[in-house]
Amino acid sequence: MLDREVEAHMKQIRDQVKAQQTIVQLLIHQILKNLETKPECENFTKEVVDSLEALKTQVWFGKEGIDAAIALTRSPVKR
Fold first, then answer.
1. pTM of the model
2. What pLDDT score does 18 carry?
3. CA 37, CA 47: separation in Å to the nearest integer?
């Protein structure tokens, strides 16, 4: 009985984390999209991807989030 409750709570936590990651990814995409329309910011997305790639080599935790941000920057989520 307790194992089922723990499992249910863990699933709920995983779902919440995934939803938060999606929100952050969409926010990053919107910010980049807006910045690229500004004068002299044409290569901004490439610079962000390069920075994220460099950051990924320095972190132990959260690499999946960085990979997701890179993927979203290159190819945004379609609704």
1. 0.49
2. 85
3. 15
